[in-house]
Amino acid sequence: MRTIPPFWFETRPWVGGEWRSSSDAFDVTEPATGRTIATVGRADAALAGAACDSAAAAFHGWSRSSAADRGLVLTRTAALLTARRDEVARLITAEQGKPYAHAAAEVDYAASFFQWFGEEARRVKGRIVPHPQADREFFVERRPAGVAGLVTPWNFPLAQAAKKIAAALAAGCTAVWKPAEATPLVALGLVPLLLEAGLPGAVLQVVPGRGSEVGAVLAAHPAVRVLSLTGSTETGRSLMAAAAAGIKRVSLELGGNAPFIVLPDADTAFVAEQLLRLKLFVSGQVCVTANRVFVPAALEDRLVTELADRLMAARVGDGMADGVDAGPLIHARACADVGGRVAAAVADGAEIVCANRSYEADERLHGGSFFPPSLVRGVGDTMRLAREEIFGPVIALSRYDRVGDAVARANATPAGLAGYVYGTDLAACRAVASALEVGIVGVNEWRPLKAEIPFGGVKESGIGAEGGEEGIAEFLDTRVVSMPRPPLPA
Ligand code: NAD
Q1: What pTM was estimated for this model as a whole?
Q2: Do residues 463 and 244 make contact, with C-beta atoms less than 8 angstroms apart?
Q3: Which end of the chain is more exposed for a tag (fewer CB within 10 A), N or C?
Q4: Ligand 1: distance of its center to the CA of 57 in Å?
Protein backbone atom coordinates (compact mmCIF):
# COMPACT_ATOMS: atom_id res chain seq x y z
CA MET A 1 0.00 0.00 0.00
CA ARG A 2 1.31 3.45 -0.94
CA THR A 3 1.46 6.23 1.66
CA ILE A 4 1.05 9.99 1.73
CA PRO A 5 4.45 11.54 0.91
CA PRO A 6 6.17 13.84 3.45
CA PHE A 7 5.14 17.42 2.56
CA TRP A 8 7.85 19.39 0.72
CA PHE A 9 5.89 22.65 1.10
CA GLU A 10 4.21 24.63 3.84
CA THR A 11 0.48 24.33 4.39
CA ARG A 12 -0.34 28.02 4.24
CA PRO A 13 -0.91 30.67 1.59
CA TRP A 14 1.95 31.63 -0.74
CA VAL A 15 1.88 35.39 -1.38
CA GLY A 16 4.56 37.81 -2.54
CA GLY A 17 7.20 35.09 -2.62
CA GLU A 18 6.62 34.00 1.00
CA TRP A 19 4.59 31.47 2.98
CA ARG A 20 2.14 33.66 4.85
CA SER A 21 0.42 33.24 8.19
CA SER A 22 -3.33 33.51 8.42
CA SER A 23 -5.69 33.74 11.36
CA ASP A 24 -7.99 30.99 10.11
CA ALA A 25 -7.39 27.43 8.97
CA PHE A 26 -9.30 24.45 7.58
CA ASP A 27 -8.84 20.69 7.54
CA VAL A 28 -8.10 18.61 4.49
CA THR A 29 -9.54 15.11 4.64
CA GLU A 30 -8.68 11.93 2.81
CA PRO A 31 -11.87 10.91 0.96
CA ALA A 32 -10.98 7.19 1.13
CA THR A 33 -10.96 7.06 4.94
CA GLY A 34 -12.47 10.33 6.13
CA ARG A 35 -9.42 11.11 8.29
CA THR A 36 -7.83 14.55 8.47
CA ILE A 37 -4.46 14.63 6.71
CA ALA A 38 -3.54 18.31 6.99
CA THR A 39 -4.65 21.67 8.31
CA VAL A 40 -4.18 24.51 5.85
CA GLY A 41 -4.05 28.25 6.54
CA ARG A 42 -7.00 29.97 4.93
CA ALA A 43 -6.50 33.19 2.98
CA ASP A 44 -9.12 35.75 3.94
CA ALA A 45 -10.21 38.73 1.86
CA ALA A 46 -7.33 40.89 3.14
CA LEU A 47 -4.69 38.33 2.19
CA ALA A 48 -6.37 37.73 -1.17
CA GLY A 49 -6.18 41.50 -1.75
CA ALA A 50 -2.50 41.49 -0.79
CA ALA A 51 -1.99 38.63 -3.26
CA CYS A 52 -3.51 40.75 -6.05
CA ASP A 53 -1.27 43.69 -5.05
CA SER A 54 1.79 41.52 -5.12
CA ALA A 55 0.90 39.99 -8.49
CA ALA A 56 0.39 43.54 -9.78
CA ALA A 57 3.81 44.58 -8.48
CA ALA A 58 5.48 41.56 -10.13
CA PHE A 59 3.74 42.20 -13.47
CA HIS A 60 6.19 44.85 -14.67
CA GLY A 61 9.21 42.55 -14.49
CA TRP A 62 7.59 39.30 -15.63
CA SER A 63 5.72 40.81 -18.57
CA ARG A 64 8.98 42.32 -19.84
CA SER A 65 11.05 39.16 -19.44
CA SER A 66 11.88 37.39 -22.67
CA ALA A 67 9.36 34.91 -24.01
CA ALA A 68 12.17 32.38 -24.29
CA ASP A 69 13.01 32.75 -20.59
CA ARG A 70 9.37 32.41 -19.58
CA GLY A 71 9.05 29.35 -21.76
CA LEU A 72 12.11 27.80 -20.16
CA VAL A 73 10.63 28.14 -16.67
CA LEU A 74 7.53 26.33 -17.88
CA THR A 75 9.28 23.50 -19.72
CA ARG A 76 11.53 22.99 -16.69
CA THR A 77 8.41 22.76 -14.53
CA ALA A 78 7.10 20.06 -16.87
CA ALA A 79 10.34 18.12 -16.43
CA LEU A 80 10.23 18.50 -12.63
CA LEU A 81 6.64 17.26 -12.49
CA THR A 82 7.62 14.22 -14.54
CA ALA A 83 10.66 13.57 -12.35
CA ARG A 84 8.53 13.80 -9.19
CA ARG A 85 5.46 12.10 -10.60
CA ASP A 86 5.27 9.50 -7.84
CA GLU A 87 5.13 11.82 -4.83
CA VAL A 88 2.88 14.36 -6.58
CA ALA A 89 0.53 11.54 -7.62
CA ARG A 90 0.40 10.15 -4.07
CA LEU A 91 -0.49 13.62 -2.80
CA ILE A 92 -3.31 13.89 -5.36
CA THR A 93 -4.64 10.45 -4.40
CA ALA A 94 -4.51 11.36 -0.71
CA GLU A 95 -6.54 14.56 -0.94
CA GLN A 96 -8.67 13.86 -4.03
CA GLY A 97 -9.21 10.11 -3.67
CA LYS A 98 -8.65 9.05 -7.29
CA PRO A 99 -6.69 5.83 -7.91
CA TYR A 100 -2.92 6.28 -8.04
CA ALA A 101 -2.81 5.38 -11.74
CA HIS A 102 -5.34 8.15 -12.51
CA ALA A 103 -3.34 10.57 -10.34
CA ALA A 104 -0.09 9.67 -12.13
CA ALA A 105 -1.89 10.24 -15.46
CA GLU A 106 -3.02 13.62 -14.15
CA VAL A 107 0.58 14.59 -13.33
CA ASP A 108 1.62 13.68 -16.90
CA TYR A 109 -1.37 15.56 -18.31
CA ALA A 110 -0.49 18.64 -16.22
CA ALA A 111 3.14 18.41 -17.33
CA SER A 112 1.99 18.32 -20.97
CA PHE A 113 0.40 21.77 -20.52
CA PHE A 114 3.55 23.24 -18.96
CA GLN A 115 5.50 21.77 -21.86
CA TRP A 116 3.04 22.98 -24.51
CA PHE A 117 2.68 26.54 -23.24
CA GLY A 118 6.42 26.68 -22.53
CA GLU A 119 6.86 26.12 -26.26
CA GLU A 120 3.97 28.41 -27.22
CA ALA A 121 5.45 31.34 -25.24
CA ARG A 122 7.88 32.01 -28.11
CA ARG A 123 5.14 31.92 -30.73
CA VAL A 124 3.08 34.89 -29.56
CA LYS A 125 3.40 37.09 -32.59
CA GLY A 126 1.97 40.40 -33.71
CA ARG A 127 1.72 41.61 -37.29
CA ILE A 128 2.22 44.68 -39.46
CA VAL A 129 -0.89 45.70 -41.38
CA PRO A 130 -0.92 48.08 -44.37
CA HIS A 131 -2.44 51.48 -43.53
CA PRO A 132 -4.83 53.11 -46.02
CA GLN A 133 -2.38 56.04 -46.10
CA ALA A 134 0.86 55.25 -47.87
CA ASP A 135 3.01 57.10 -45.34
CA ARG A 136 1.78 55.15 -42.29
CA GLU A 137 1.61 51.57 -41.05
CA PHE A 138 -0.14 49.65 -38.28
CA PHE A 139 1.64 47.49 -35.71
CA VAL A 140 -0.74 44.96 -34.19
CA GLU A 141 0.75 43.82 -30.89
CA ARG A 142 -0.35 41.08 -28.50
CA ARG A 143 0.39 41.95 -24.93
CA PRO A 144 -0.15 40.26 -21.57
CA ALA A 145 -3.53 41.33 -20.21
CA GLY A 146 -2.42 41.98 -16.60
CA VAL A 147 -2.97 39.98 -13.44
CA ALA A 148 -4.91 36.75 -13.96
CA GLY A 149 -7.26 35.46 -11.27
CA LEU A 150 -7.38 31.66 -11.52
CA VAL A 151 -10.02 29.55 -9.75
CA THR A 152 -9.96 25.75 -9.97
CA PRO A 153 -12.06 22.74 -8.87
CA TRP A 154 -11.11 19.62 -6.93
CA ASN A 155 -11.58 16.92 -9.58
CA PHE A 156 -8.24 17.55 -11.34
CA PRO A 157 -6.54 19.74 -8.72
CA LEU A 158 -3.25 19.89 -10.62
CA ALA A 159 -4.23 19.58 -14.28
CA GLN A 160 -7.06 22.14 -14.32
CA ALA A 161 -4.64 24.60 -12.76
CA ALA A 162 -1.75 23.70 -15.07
CA LYS A 163 -3.87 24.66 -18.10
CA LYS A 164 -4.42 28.13 -16.67
CA ILE A 165 -1.10 28.81 -14.93
CA ALA A 166 1.04 27.71 -17.86
CA ALA A 167 -0.97 29.75 -20.38
CA ALA A 168 -1.09 32.86 -18.17
CA LEU A 169 2.62 32.81 -17.33
CA ALA A 170 3.59 32.08 -20.95
CA ALA A 171 1.59 35.13 -22.04
CA GLY A 172 3.50 37.27 -19.52
CA CYS A 173 0.70 37.62 -16.97
CA THR A 174 1.25 37.22 -13.25
CA ALA A 175 -1.40 35.35 -11.31
CA VAL A 176 -3.37 34.72 -8.15
CA TRP A 177 -4.58 31.12 -7.92
CA LYS A 178 -7.39 29.99 -5.68
CA PRO A 179 -7.48 26.19 -5.53
CA ALA A 180 -10.56 24.30 -4.35
CA GLU A 181 -10.81 23.98 -0.59
CA ALA A 182 -10.95 20.18 -0.77
CA THR A 183 -7.61 19.98 -2.61
CA PRO A 184 -5.18 22.74 -1.60
CA LEU A 185 -2.17 20.47 -0.95
CA VAL A 186 -1.09 19.78 -4.51
CA ALA A 187 -1.54 23.50 -5.23
CA LEU A 188 0.88 24.39 -2.47
CA GLY A 189 3.11 21.51 -3.58
CA LEU A 190 3.48 23.04 -7.03
CA VAL A 191 5.10 26.20 -5.59
CA PRO A 192 8.56 24.72 -4.79
CA LEU A 193 8.67 23.08 -8.21
CA LEU A 194 7.96 26.38 -9.96
CA LEU A 195 10.63 28.10 -7.87
CA GLU A 196 13.14 25.36 -8.66
CA ALA A 197 12.29 25.85 -12.33
CA GLY A 198 13.27 29.51 -11.97
CA LEU A 199 9.96 31.31 -11.45
CA PRO A 200 10.38 34.56 -9.47
CA GLY A 201 8.50 33.99 -6.20
CA ALA A 202 5.91 36.76 -6.52
CA VAL A 203 4.77 35.93 -10.06
CA LEU A 204 2.24 33.35 -8.81
CA GLN A 205 0.36 33.54 -5.50
CA VAL A 206 -1.61 30.61 -4.09
CA VAL A 207 -4.51 31.56 -1.84
CA PRO A 208 -6.52 28.65 -0.44
CA GLY A 209 -9.76 30.21 0.70
CA ARG A 210 -13.51 30.38 0.36
CA GLY A 211 -14.73 30.63 -3.21
CA SER A 212 -17.17 33.48 -2.74
CA GLU A 213 -14.77 35.50 -0.55
CA VAL A 214 -11.64 35.20 -2.72
CA GLY A 215 -13.72 35.33 -5.90
CA ALA A 216 -15.19 38.68 -4.84
CA VAL A 217 -11.70 40.10 -4.19
CA LEU A 218 -10.41 38.90 -7.57
CA ALA A 219 -13.45 40.37 -9.31
CA ALA A 220 -13.08 43.72 -7.57
CA HIS A 221 -9.31 44.28 -7.73
CA PRO A 222 -8.44 46.73 -10.52
CA ALA A 223 -5.17 45.00 -11.49
CA VAL A 224 -6.94 41.70 -12.20
CA ARG A 225 -7.94 41.79 -15.87
CA VAL A 226 -8.78 38.15 -16.57
CA LEU A 227 -10.84 35.81 -14.41
CA SER A 228 -10.41 32.20 -15.41
CA LEU A 229 -12.61 29.66 -13.65
CA THR A 230 -13.11 25.94 -13.99
CA GLY A 231 -16.11 24.98 -11.92
CA SER A 232 -19.85 24.59 -11.95
CA THR A 233 -22.13 26.61 -14.20
CA GLU A 234 -23.67 28.21 -11.10
CA THR A 235 -20.27 29.48 -9.94
CA GLY A 236 -19.51 30.67 -13.47
CA ARG A 237 -22.69 32.68 -13.52
CA SER A 238 -21.89 34.38 -10.23
CA LEU A 239 -18.25 35.09 -11.12
CA MET A 240 -19.31 36.50 -14.50
CA ALA A 241 -21.80 38.80 -12.79
CA ALA A 242 -19.13 39.96 -10.33
CA ALA A 243 -16.68 40.55 -13.19
CA ALA A 244 -19.18 42.73 -15.02
CA ALA A 245 -18.65 45.69 -12.68
CA GLY A 246 -14.98 46.01 -13.67
CA ILE A 247 -15.57 44.85 -17.29
CA LYS A 248 -13.08 42.04 -16.73
CA ARG A 249 -12.58 39.30 -19.23
CA VAL A 250 -13.87 35.92 -18.15
CA SER A 251 -12.75 32.52 -19.31
CA LEU A 252 -15.14 29.88 -18.03
CA GLU A 253 -14.86 26.09 -18.17
CA LEU A 254 -18.13 24.93 -16.63
CA GLY A 255 -20.37 21.96 -16.15
CA GLY A 256 -21.36 19.48 -18.84
CA ASN A 257 -24.04 16.92 -19.61
CA ALA A 258 -22.29 14.85 -22.24
CA PRO A 259 -24.30 12.58 -24.52
CA PHE A 260 -22.73 9.24 -25.40
CA ILE A 261 -24.40 7.95 -28.56
CA VAL A 262 -24.04 4.27 -29.41
CA LEU A 263 -24.85 3.79 -33.12
CA PRO A 264 -26.72 0.67 -34.32
CA ASP A 265 -23.59 -0.90 -35.87
CA ALA A 266 -21.38 -0.39 -32.79
CA ASP A 267 -19.28 -3.20 -31.33
CA THR A 268 -20.93 -3.56 -27.92
CA ALA A 269 -17.89 -5.20 -26.26
CA PHE A 270 -15.71 -2.24 -27.28
CA VAL A 271 -18.39 0.24 -26.21
CA ALA A 272 -18.75 -1.45 -22.82
CA GLU A 273 -15.00 -1.44 -22.23
CA GLN A 274 -14.63 2.25 -23.20
CA LEU A 275 -17.75 3.47 -21.44
CA LEU A 276 -16.77 1.78 -18.20
CA ARG A 277 -13.28 3.33 -18.34
CA LEU A 278 -14.86 6.73 -18.95
CA LYS A 279 -17.37 6.40 -16.10
CA LEU A 280 -14.91 4.96 -13.56
CA PHE A 281 -12.28 7.61 -14.38
CA VAL A 282 -12.16 9.77 -11.22
CA SER A 283 -15.42 7.97 -10.28
CA GLY A 284 -17.39 9.94 -12.85
CA GLN A 285 -16.49 13.29 -11.24
CA VAL A 286 -15.37 14.68 -14.57
CA CYS A 287 -17.00 17.52 -16.49
CA VAL A 288 -16.64 15.67 -19.80
CA THR A 289 -17.75 12.26 -18.60
CA ALA A 290 -20.72 10.55 -20.30
CA ASN A 291 -23.87 11.70 -18.54
CA ARG A 292 -26.57 10.30 -20.85
CA VAL A 293 -25.93 7.10 -22.79
CA PHE A 294 -28.22 6.70 -25.80
CA VAL A 295 -28.53 3.06 -26.91
CA PRO A 296 -30.50 1.63 -29.86
CA ALA A 297 -33.32 -0.52 -28.47
CA ALA A 298 -32.03 -3.52 -30.45
CA LEU A 299 -28.60 -3.37 -28.75
CA GLU A 300 -29.73 -2.55 -25.23
CA ASP A 301 -29.91 -6.03 -23.68
CA ARG A 302 -26.54 -7.04 -25.09
CA LEU A 303 -24.87 -3.82 -23.94
CA VAL A 304 -26.42 -4.14 -20.47
CA THR A 305 -24.95 -7.64 -20.08
CA GLU A 306 -21.51 -6.55 -21.30
CA LEU A 307 -21.51 -3.51 -19.02
CA ALA A 308 -22.81 -5.34 -15.96
CA ASP A 309 -20.15 -8.07 -16.23
CA ARG A 310 -17.36 -5.52 -16.44
CA LEU A 311 -18.77 -3.18 -13.82
CA MET A 312 -19.14 -5.95 -11.25
CA ALA A 313 -15.57 -7.15 -11.95
CA ALA A 314 -14.10 -3.70 -11.25
CA ARG A 315 -12.19 -3.08 -8.04
CA VAL A 316 -13.49 -0.14 -6.01
CA GLY A 317 -11.37 0.90 -3.05
CA ASP A 318 -8.52 2.98 -1.66
CA GLY A 319 -6.72 4.70 -4.53
CA MET A 320 -3.39 4.12 -2.79
CA ALA A 321 -3.71 0.34 -3.38
CA ASP A 322 -2.59 -1.39 -6.57
CA GLY A 323 -5.12 -2.34 -9.22
CA VAL A 324 -7.97 -0.11 -8.02
CA ASP A 325 -10.30 0.97 -10.83
CA ALA A 326 -12.37 3.54 -8.92
CA GLY A 327 -11.94 5.41 -5.66
CA PRO A 328 -14.31 7.36 -3.41
CA LEU A 329 -16.22 10.54 -4.22
CA ILE A 330 -14.81 13.80 -2.92
CA HIS A 331 -17.01 13.99 0.21
CA ALA A 332 -20.16 12.56 1.79
CA ARG A 333 -22.31 15.38 0.35
CA ALA A 334 -21.36 14.28 -3.16
CA CYS A 335 -22.52 10.73 -2.34
CA ALA A 336 -25.84 12.08 -1.11
CA ASP A 337 -26.26 14.19 -4.28
CA VAL A 338 -25.56 11.27 -6.62
CA GLY A 339 -27.71 8.93 -4.53
CA GLY A 340 -30.57 11.43 -4.65
CA ARG A 341 -30.47 11.54 -8.45
CA VAL A 342 -30.48 7.75 -8.69
CA ALA A 343 -33.30 7.39 -6.16
CA ALA A 344 -35.43 9.94 -8.01
CA ALA A 345 -34.87 8.05 -11.29
CA VAL A 346 -35.89 4.76 -9.68
CA ALA A 347 -39.01 6.39 -8.24
CA ASP A 348 -39.85 7.51 -11.80
CA GLY A 349 -39.46 4.00 -13.23
CA ALA A 350 -35.74 3.53 -13.99
CA GLU A 351 -34.11 0.25 -12.93
CA ILE A 352 -30.79 -0.29 -11.13
CA VAL A 353 -29.28 -3.27 -12.96
CA CYS A 354 -26.29 -3.65 -10.63
CA ALA A 355 -24.11 -1.75 -8.17
CA ASN A 356 -20.54 -2.62 -7.18
CA ARG A 357 -19.97 -2.35 -3.42
CA SER A 358 -16.65 -4.17 -3.32
CA TYR A 359 -15.15 -1.40 -1.15
CA GLU A 360 -17.39 -2.46 1.75
CA ALA A 361 -15.16 -5.45 2.45
CA ASP A 362 -12.36 -3.13 3.63
CA GLU A 363 -13.16 -1.88 7.15
CA ARG A 364 -10.57 0.91 6.92
CA LEU A 365 -12.77 2.55 4.28
CA HIS A 366 -16.00 2.63 6.29
CA GLY A 367 -15.50 6.32 7.09
CA GLY A 368 -14.79 7.11 3.41
CA SER A 369 -17.16 8.71 0.93
CA PHE A 370 -17.76 5.84 -1.47
CA PHE A 371 -20.63 5.53 -3.90
CA PRO A 372 -21.15 2.17 -5.63
CA PRO A 373 -20.51 2.28 -9.39
CA SER A 374 -23.96 1.52 -10.77
CA LEU A 375 -25.71 0.68 -14.02
CA VAL A 376 -29.17 2.18 -14.45
CA ARG A 377 -31.46 1.50 -17.43
CA GLY A 378 -34.74 3.00 -18.53
CA VAL A 379 -33.62 6.58 -17.87
CA GLY A 380 -36.04 9.16 -19.29
CA ASP A 381 -35.05 12.61 -20.55
CA THR A 382 -37.03 14.40 -17.85
CA MET A 383 -35.38 12.58 -14.95
CA ARG A 384 -32.80 14.46 -12.86
CA LEU A 385 -30.29 11.75 -13.77
CA ALA A 386 -30.54 12.96 -17.39
CA ARG A 387 -31.09 16.68 -16.83
CA GLU A 388 -28.40 17.27 -14.19
CA GLU A 389 -24.70 16.53 -14.14
CA ILE A 390 -24.53 13.18 -12.27
CA PHE A 391 -20.90 13.67 -11.15
CA GLY A 392 -20.61 10.10 -9.94
CA PRO A 393 -19.95 6.57 -11.26
CA VAL A 394 -23.45 5.96 -12.57
CA ILE A 395 -24.04 4.74 -16.11
CA ALA A 396 -27.47 6.03 -17.16
CA LEU A 397 -28.87 4.21 -20.22
CA SER A 398 -31.65 5.66 -22.37
CA ARG A 399 -33.17 3.78 -25.31
CA TYR A 400 -33.72 5.27 -28.76
CA ASP A 401 -35.26 4.07 -32.02
CA ARG A 402 -33.96 6.54 -34.65
CA VAL A 403 -30.48 8.10 -34.74
CA GLY A 404 -31.99 11.49 -35.59
CA ASP A 405 -34.08 11.37 -32.41
CA ALA A 406 -31.04 10.48 -30.31
CA VAL A 407 -29.15 13.48 -31.73
CA ALA A 408 -32.08 15.83 -31.09
CA ARG A 409 -32.38 14.56 -27.50
CA ALA A 410 -28.61 14.82 -27.03
CA ASN A 411 -28.77 18.51 -27.95
CA ALA A 412 -31.83 19.27 -25.83
CA THR A 413 -29.84 20.59 -22.86
CA PRO A 414 -28.40 24.00 -21.93
CA ALA A 415 -24.99 22.34 -21.51
CA GLY A 416 -22.58 21.87 -24.42
CA LEU A 417 -19.23 20.59 -23.27
CA ALA A 418 -18.40 17.14 -24.67
CA GLY A 419 -20.02 14.32 -26.63
CA TYR A 420 -19.14 10.78 -27.69
CA VAL A 421 -20.12 8.74 -30.72
CA TYR A 422 -19.42 5.03 -31.05
CA GLY A 423 -19.98 3.09 -34.26
CA THR A 424 -18.31 1.18 -37.09
CA ASP A 425 -19.40 3.31 -40.07
CA LEU A 426 -17.10 6.32 -39.75
CA ALA A 427 -19.18 8.44 -42.14
CA ALA A 428 -22.21 7.99 -39.87
CA CYS A 429 -20.05 8.74 -36.79
CA ARG A 430 -18.75 11.90 -38.45
CA ALA A 431 -22.26 13.07 -39.38
CA VAL A 432 -23.51 12.55 -35.83
CA ALA A 433 -20.41 14.21 -34.35
CA SER A 434 -20.95 17.24 -36.58
CA ALA A 435 -24.56 17.55 -35.42
CA LEU A 436 -23.72 17.68 -31.70
CA GLU A 437 -23.82 21.10 -30.02
CA VAL A 438 -20.69 20.66 -27.89
CA GLY A 439 -17.07 21.84 -27.69
CA ILE A 440 -15.42 18.46 -28.26
CA VAL A 441 -16.49 15.06 -29.59
CA GLY A 442 -14.69 11.75 -29.12
CA VAL A 443 -15.44 9.31 -31.92
CA ASN A 444 -14.62 5.82 -30.68
CA GLU A 445 -12.38 7.55 -28.10
CA TRP A 446 -13.17 8.01 -24.43
CA ARG A 447 -10.63 10.73 -23.61
CA PRO A 448 -9.87 13.08 -26.52
CA LEU A 449 -8.44 15.97 -24.44
CA LYS A 450 -4.81 16.93 -25.11
CA ALA A 451 -2.61 20.01 -24.60
CA GLU A 452 -2.31 20.52 -28.37
CA ILE A 453 -6.02 21.25 -28.92
CA PRO A 454 -8.37 23.96 -27.70
CA PHE A 455 -10.96 22.67 -25.28
CA GLY A 456 -13.94 24.70 -24.15
CA GLY A 457 -17.68 24.40 -23.95
CA VAL A 458 -20.50 26.05 -25.86
CA LYS A 459 -23.92 27.17 -24.55
CA GLU A 460 -23.92 27.21 -20.71
CA SER A 461 -20.77 25.09 -20.51
CA GLY A 462 -18.48 28.03 -20.89
CA ILE A 463 -16.69 30.81 -22.69
CA GLY A 464 -13.19 30.56 -24.15
CA ALA A 465 -10.83 27.65 -24.45
CA GLU A 466 -7.86 26.02 -22.76
CA GLY A 467 -4.99 24.30 -24.54
CA GLY A 468 -4.00 24.64 -28.18
CA GLU A 469 -3.06 27.97 -29.71
CA GLU A 470 -6.27 29.40 -28.31
CA GLY A 471 -5.39 28.81 -24.64
CA ILE A 472 -2.76 31.53 -24.46
CA ALA A 473 -5.02 34.05 -26.25
CA GLU A 474 -7.26 34.12 -23.16
CA PHE A 475 -4.47 36.03 -21.40
CA LEU A 476 -3.46 38.39 -24.20
CA ASP A 477 -4.76 41.82 -25.20
CA THR A 478 -4.42 43.28 -28.67
CA ARG A 479 -2.96 46.76 -29.08
CA VAL A 480 -2.56 48.64 -32.31
CA VAL A 481 0.05 51.32 -32.82
CA SER A 482 -0.47 53.50 -35.89
CA MET A 483 2.96 54.79 -36.95
CA PRO A 484 4.33 57.08 -39.63
CA ARG A 485 6.53 55.08 -41.99
CA PRO A 486 10.00 56.50 -41.53
CA PRO A 487 11.36 57.90 -44.79
CA LEU A 488 14.58 56.43 -46.13
CA PRO A 489 17.41 58.78 -45.17
CA ALA A 490 18.68 60.73 -48.20
P1 NAD B 1 -17.50 24.74 -7.85
O2 NAD B 1 -18.05 25.66 -8.87
O3 NAD B 1 -18.26 24.51 -6.63
O4 NAD B 1 -16.06 25.24 -7.39
C5 NAD B 1 -15.02 25.51 -8.31
C6 NAD B 1 -14.11 26.56 -7.71
O7 NAD B 1 -14.83 27.79 -7.64
C8 NAD B 1 -13.66 26.24 -6.28
O9 NAD B 1 -12.32 26.66 -6.13
C10 NAD B 1 -14.60 27.11 -5.45
O11 NAD B 1 -14.06 27.44 -4.19
C12 NAD B 1 -14.73 28.32 -6.34
N13 NAD B 1 -15.91 29.15 -6.08
C14 NAD B 1 -17.09 28.80 -5.53
N15 NAD B 1 -17.93 29.86 -5.48
C16 NAD B 1 -17.25 30.91 -6.03
C17 NAD B 1 -17.57 32.26 -6.30
N18 NAD B 1 -18.75 32.76 -5.97
N19 NAD B 1 -16.63 33.03 -6.89
C20 NAD B 1 -15.44 32.52 -7.23
N21 NAD B 1 -15.08 31.25 -7.01
C22 NAD B 1 -15.98 30.45 -6.42
O23 NAD B 1 -17.19 23.39 -8.62
P24 NAD B 1 -16.60 22.04 -8.03
O25 NAD B 1 -17.68 21.36 -7.27
O26 NAD B 1 -15.30 22.30 -7.34
O27 NAD B 1 -16.25 21.27 -9.38
C28 NAD B 1 -17.22 20.57 -10.07
C29 NAD B 1 -17.80 21.38 -11.20
O30 NAD B 1 -16.76 21.86 -12.05
C31 NAD B 1 -18.69 20.56 -12.09
O32 NAD B 1 -19.81 21.28 -12.48
C33 NAD B 1 -17.81 20.28 -13.30
O34 NAD B 1 -18.51 19.97 -14.47
C35 NAD B 1 -17.05 21.54 -13.40
N36 NAD B 1 -15.82 21.29 -14.17
C37 NAD B 1 -15.73 21.82 -15.42
C38 NAD B 1 -14.59 21.57 -16.17
C39 NAD B 1 -14.43 22.10 -17.56
O40 NAD B 1 -13.32 22.05 -18.08
N41 NAD B 1 -15.45 22.62 -18.20
C42 NAD B 1 -13.57 20.80 -15.64
C43 NAD B 1 -13.71 20.28 -14.35
C44 NAD B 1 -14.86 20.56 -13.62
Answers
A1: 0.98
A2: no
A3: C
A4: 28
Please identify which of the residues 30, 106, 120, 253 carries the catalytic annotation: 253
Active site residue 253: yes
pLDDT recorded at residue 407: 98
- Report CA torsion sign: 15, 18, 22, 28: positive
Second-level CATH architecture of 258-443: 3-Layer(aba) Sandwich (3.40)
CA distance 212 to 254: 16
Segments in the chain below pLDDT 50: none
Fold of domain 14-254+457-480? Aldehyde Dehydrogenase; Chain A, domain 1 (3.40.605)
pLDDT at position 176 is 99
Provide the pLDDT for residue 131: 97
- Residue of the nearest CA to atom 12 in ligand 1? 211
Is 173 within 8 Å of 205 (Cβ atoms)?
no
Write out residues with Cβ below 6 Å of ligand 1.
151-155, 160, 178, 180-181, 211-212, 215, 230-232, 235, 238-239, 253-256, 287, 389, 417, 457, 462
Q: What does the pLDDT look like over 198-210, one tens digit per residue?
A: 999 999 999 999 9
Annotate 227-275 with DSSP letters as a single string.
EEEES-HHHHHHHHHHHHTTT-EEEEE----EEEEEPTT--HHHHHHHH
pLDDT of residue 158: 98
